[in-house]
Amino acid sequence: MIINSPAEVILTSRWSYRKCYRTRPTVPAETMSHSYESGRQAMAEIGSKQPHELLLMLGGLLAVLLTLATYGIQWVTPPGIAQSQYATVATALILNLVLGGALWASSAITRKNLMNGAIVAGVISIVLIYFGGRPGQIGGIVGILGAILAAAKPYLPWSRRE
Fold first, then answer.
1. What stretch of H or E contains 2?
2. 14-23, 68-77, 87-96: which has the minimum mean pLDDT?
3. Looking at the domain assignment, is residue 26 inside a domain?
4. Which terminus of the chain, N or C, has fewer Cβ atoms within 10 Å?
């Protein structure tokens, strides 16, 4: 160790090859400067989607979030979920999570092929309505509306290209 002045200390040893001891912070002071731009880009992406895509995404999101909220609240409240109901709850959770995610993914299918995406979304929504319980019914109805809108889009007067 070499001391040049009371404010400057130089550390030396025979094992320290090119070690740099910085006195300034390595993280820039403006770490959150890009948050506005990233949020702005996300809103522009949502604004560029068609109404049927938004409905399909909303239906899938509702099925997933309502399922998690419903069973999460039941799990946390004092009586909890009865042990005899674990299999039913696990089945409903897995079914709604998978089908809700598939309904979300069907919005991407409609971008590639409108009618195929509408058919896939309709089938997923019917299965959600029938087997999904209350959260599945809500997400499935929104998904059915999105599927109907996607299937009817070529025949609507404002979407015709002349």
1. strand 2-5
2. 14-23
3. no
4. C
